[in-house]
Amino acid sequence: MGPKSAVVCSIRHGGPPGQSFGRPKLDPDEFAARRQAAETVARDAGQLAQSYLADRRTLKVARKGPQDVVTEADSAVERMIIATLRSGYPGDTFIGEEGGGAVGERCWVIDPIDGTTNFARGLPHWCVSIALVVAGRTEVGVIFDPNADLLYSAQRGSGARCNNTLIQVSGTTEVAGAMVDVGYSSRTGIDDFGTMVTALLQSGVNVTQAGSAALGLARVADGRLDGYAERHLYAWDVLAGMLLVEEAGGCVNEFLAGNSLTTGNETIAATPALYAVLAAMLMMRRA
Length: 287
Ligand code: IPD
Ligand code: CA
Description:
Bound molecules: D-MYO-inositol-1-phosphate, calcium ion
Number of helices: 8
Number of strands: 16
Oligomer: single chain
CATH architecture of the largest domain: 2-Layer Sandwich
Shape: globular
Helix content: 25-40%
Largest sheet: 8 strands, mixed
CATH topology of the largest domain: Fructose-1,6-Bisphosphatase, Chain A, domain 1
CATH superfamily of the largest domain: Fructose-1,6-Bisphosphatase, subunit A, domain 1
Strand content: 25-35%
Radius of gyration: 18 Å
CATH class of the largest domain: Alpha Beta
């Protein structure tokens, strides 16, 4: 789908990996303040979303496409996140899954509820995802999982944390026995998805399709999963989670190549040892 992209592995901390974009555009205190603001609003957003589940029978759900729904909570939560962050940072720009937005030098990228299908069904695997992109690179990533009360947070060069404790990707090196979350959307081909899943299963991988790319990436960052792969995702689904994986010592593809901030891209994240094989399987197409 999106442009092909290189791999970025941030195995050590202390310096920005990959390409240099002539940074920094903000000083470290300004990044830290924005990270803290994102952490606070992500928690509040998770609570607001949960309030819509008090009586799930009254939740308004609309179909966006095959295997794709949106609820009234998605838009309300997104509006709340943007209004809160905008009041603190009026010079920043905002892109949200539900309301679109504008790209700018300092751009917040927001998925109010990732895993909306799970959310609408009362399945406890969804999250709030907030990333800050500065001059084309993700600098802050925050994911809140209200069902497990886990707040994942990363600031580039400072490591990844879950509830304030540093996290690391798993040490898995063997493909057989690894556990990988895969995602599907109707934006890509069913047959190609099937080919990827078949290849993973034939290699002995435990495959799950848990239904939230953002939370899947957070689970790769904390080592519960060994990888996440999907042929096409939007920036709001993945930027926070991909920074978490990078900062936790994993490898990710360079998602923001080309126009991917607005058009999306393929997504691969894994332990350093598994990345290449997962990337190869994601690219397999039906013969
Ligand atoms: C979806 C989820 C899902 C992924 C889809 C996304 P949504 O986002 O992240 O896991 O496979 O591609 O669109 O609709 O739940 O915000
Ligand atoms: Ca999403």
